[in-house]
Amino acid sequence: MYGSASTHDLPTNAPTGLENEDPTLLAAFEARIARGEKIEPTDWMPALYRKQLTRMIEQHAHSEIIGSLPEGTWITRAPGFRRKMAQMAKVQDEVGHAQLLYSAAETLGKTREEMLVDLINGKSKYSNVFNYPTPTWADSNVISWLIDAGAIVNQMANAKGSYGPYCRALERICAEEAFHLKYGHDAVVHLATGTKIQREMMQAALNRWWPAIMTFFGPSDKMSVHTEILMRWKVKMATNDDCRNQFLDMYVPKIWEIGLTVPDEKLAKNDATGQWEFTEPDWEDFKRVINGGGPCNAERIAVRRAAEENGAWVRRALSASKTERKYVQPLA
Amino acid sequence: MITSHDPRMNRLGLPDAPATAAAKQALDQFETYEVFHQKKENAAYTYVGPVHAPEADVAFLFAKEQFSRRFACTGLWVVPTSAITVTAYVGDQESAYDTLPPVATGTGPEPADTTAADALAHATDEEDYDIFHLKKRGKAQAHVGKVRAVSPAEALQVASAVFGAMRPVVNVWAIRSADILRSDDEDRDIWASTPEKKYREAISYKVQDRIDRFKNEG
């Protein structure tokens, strides 16, 4: 799930640093991408490409590992044995996705140790939607279905990007997501077509999550110099607005067909433009939450940190007998 | 203290505003191993990605969990990343074998007498190497065969002679066969349980009947 990696890169006027790159190498790099060839870890690449991809893949990895927490909390209370098994399998997938993505980011030169500490210290971000709680089973189902659906829109786009290791990881991730989406849809349909109490619980959860879902793809892209370069380099494959519109196209009808309503009176598709119209999300609140002010930021980080710290002795014990140890960056 | 909807989180007694975490020591997350899997019997082993682990046996367990959990798998190999010799990556239409340094023939003084005994000594130093090719950037390295050589560099040279006609070859990996931890044929039942876990398959979730019923009742 959760590949909303580019969401947090707000438009910037920071220098690109391209004037410092070797023009011959840069031209060859751009020509390779233009030919449709992927970039592999040992290839020459501009510093901006390396930096932006590292940040994006790292944020994606953090989103997977933090994103497993709000659903993980429901494993023991999922209704019925089969749902417990499925919820557990899904959460395991998400943690597995984090492993794949951390490795892909490592091929760009940042160690896993650095990434994990940056997450715990709030220096690196993760998808903002996970700073909200899952007070009911229905909330967990909304994540399983609609947040995963949003993530798939992003990930399918990014899988066509230019960096080989990220593409390989995303290919496996997208294949695994197919189960998440169906599982989440099944769970939501079950409640939405159930008893009055079940329907109300599902509608209430959707009402709570809708504003966060609308921010999932990030603010409207301003076509900054960076956006233009990153799209040319196939780091960014679609604008935030395109992803959001595609998501609404695919899922609003599915929400409506099971008798749920979307808590936005303005939500409607403009058939002339093909674009959905909606109430602009509260981006000030988005910024406040992403900077630590959300209801669950502290809990998410604290739980991750506790896992790291409580597991430290196991890691030490496993390595204790080894004398010759040397880190080698993963190859691909 | 952090207060959560989840009573288990509350029982951890996590502090509200903890001090900044210190940098981790190098190798806190262990060394890296590269993993190859076999999708079905007799298929070529193909690269699937790395895992971090303190030793090969643990790497194998992690790899099994990570790469054979969801889809069919009939075999797994794990190798320390440090044991893999890698050529340059070339373009999708080229051959990475063309980037190998030229073989040093006739440049140095010829050995005084290449006796049968020397040849035999060389032969006993030889070991098997497994060779992997990447056919296209963004795809995965796949096993093409074995060669015998006394060093990784020589293994690449031998591979160039044996497999060099295959094109394209974007990148080549050579691994001393002894460095690969392989799943055992007699343990093949470890792969048997994956297809039993139907709740992990998208196809197990069929909601359309329920949706249709709901619409008709509505």
Characterise the protein shown here.
The complex is a heterodimer of chains A (332) and B (218). Chain A has 332 residues and is mainly alpha-helical. Chain A has helices spanning 23-34, 47-72, 81-106, 112-120, 137-158, 164-192, 196-215, 225-232, 240-257, 283-293, 297-310, 312-319; strands spanning 268-270, 275-277. Chain A has a two-stranded antiparallel ribbon with strand order 1-2. The two termini of chain A are 22 Å apart. In chain B, a hairpin with a 7-residue loop joins strand 5 (127-134) and strand 6. Chain B is built from 5 helices and 8 strands. The model of chain B has no long low-confidence stretch (mean pLDDT 91). The radius of gyration of chain B is 25 Å and the shape is extended.
Characterize the biggest β-sheet of chain A. Answer: 2 strands, antiparallel
Catalogue the unreliable spans of chain B. Answer: none
Question: Level of helix content of chain A?
Answer: 55-70%
Percentage of residues in DSSP E strands of chain B:
15-25%
Strand count, sense and barrel status of the largest sheet of chain B are:
4 strands, antiparallel
DSSP helical segment count of chain A? 12
Radius of gyration of chain B: 25 Å
* Mean pLDDT rating of chain B: 91
What average pLDDT do the residues of chain A reach?
Answer: 93
Question: What is the compact description of this entry?
Answer:
Chain A has 332 residues and is an all-alpha fold. Chain A has twelve helices and two strands. Chain A has a two-stranded antiparallel ribbon with strand order 1-2.
